[in-house]
Amino acid sequence: MAGRSGAQPGPGEGAAAFAAEPAGTIDAAARIAITSRRTAADSTVARVPELSVGYHVTRRRVAELVNALDDADLERTVPACPAWDVHDLLAHMSGIPDELAAGRYPTGDTQVWLDGIIDDRKDVAVDDLLARWEATEGRIDTLIDGGAGQMLADVVSHEHDLRAAVGRPGARGVAEVRAVVQIELELLKPAMEEAGLGALVVDSGEVQWASHFAKPACTLRVDPWEAIRLLQSRRTADELRATPCTGDLEPYIAVIAAHSPLPESSLGER
Questions:
Q1: What would the pLDDT profile of 221-249 be if each residue is shown by its tens digit?
Q2: Neighbours of 135 (CB within 10 A)
Q3: What is the pLDDT of residue 215?
Q4: pLDDT, tens digit, for every residue of 248-267?
Q5: Which residues, other chains included, contact 210 with Cβ-Cβ below 8 Å and sequence gap of 6+?
Q6: Using CA atoms, how far apart are residues 151 and 226, in angstroms rounded to an integer?
Q7: pTM for this predicted structure
Q8: Residues 270, 81: contact at Cβ < 8 Å?
Q9: Which residues of 183-219 are buried (b: 16+ CB within 10 A; e: fewer)?
Q10: Which H or E run contains 168?
Q11: Is beta strand 207-210 parallel, antiparallel or unpaired with respect to 199-203?
Q12: Which sequence spans correspond to the domains of the chain?
């Protein structure tokens, strides 16, 4: 869902795939199956909230950020999605749940549906976009928690695309970012299995996430925020190759790039 198209990062590719997926497609992600390093003294496992909770926490955080922007900010190009400006990005983020809540699912070419969401909202004021998005709370939650956890991955990914576009980094250590690590690994899992690859592991030093039940073949030693940015194709091939890891990352770079094209030049996020 995190919008991309063509050789350069851009809007759209696969952004509404959840709409066509059967419930339960990513239920492992919905459970946020995190393997945590715990000592014997730390054996309590906290209850994991529904993904829809994290979705709306992120939505409110985005709304707060957007409300602080001026007209010039809204016209800024989004480096991760260079065919869009900030208003387009907000139209995408708010428009997908708005359409789904109204029962307007894609019935043909998903890209046409996605493009139409932005086109239909070109002249819609930011306040109205945010109000429509807020009104989806309670109407899309069952969808998100019933197998469309990719919606959380999309909104978290685009929150950080937005922050980069307006020069306001933040919210990198929030729970929603950590949850999306597992969702992204799950989304890449079928291609890894088809290629006969072992598990791709993300090790933050405190928590480990694995793509699937198989012998680990490559371990990325990065924090959760960097993990989601590279898994969501926000890093160039050379930046991926420079990622601290053990094992051979090259076949996994191919999987990531096939899922969504890598940028040709660095987004400059650090």
A1: 999 999 999 999 999 999 999 999 999 99
A2: 13
A3: 97
A4: 999 999 999 999 999 999 99
A5: 35, 185, 199, 200, 201, 202, 216
A6: 19
A7: 0.84
A8: no
A9: bbbbbbbebbeeeebbbbbbbbeebbbbbbeeeebbb
A10: none
A11: antiparallel
A12: 51-166
Residue 211: its H or E element: none
- Provide φ and ψ at 54, rounded to 5°: -65, -35
Host H or E run for residue 264: none
User: Hey, what are 43's tokens?
Assistant: 């054996």
Alpha-helical regions (H) of 120-266: 126-134, 141-145, 150-166, 175-194, 224-231, 237-241, 250-259
**Which residues are bridge partners to 208 per DSSP?**
35, 203
pLDDT at 164: 98
Torsion of Cα atoms, 8 then 263 then 82 then 128, to 10°: 120
The number of beta carbons lying within 10 Å of the beta carbon of residue 120 is: 13
Question: What is d(CA 175, CA 207) in angstroms, rounded to the nearest whole number?
Answer: 12
Type of residue at 191: A
Position of tokens 């699912």?
105
How far apart are the C-alpha atoms of 214 and 28, rounded to whole Å?
A: 15
Query: Angle CA(36)–CA(40)–CA(45) in degrees, nearest 5?
Result: 45
What is the tens place of the pLDDT at every residue in 111-123? 999 999 999 999 9
Give the pLDDT confidence of 141-200 residue by residue, as tens digits: 999 999 999 999 999 999 999 999 999 999 999 999 999 999 999 999 999 999 999 999
Say if CB 144 and CB 55 are below 8 A apart. Answer: yes
pLDDT at residue 28, rounded to an integer: 31
Parallel/antiparallel/unpaired status of strands 81-85 and 77-78: antiparallel
238: its two tokens: 């050379």
What are the residues whose beta carbons fall under 8 Å from the beta carbon of 65, sequence distance 6 or more?
Answer: 159, 162, 163, 166, 168
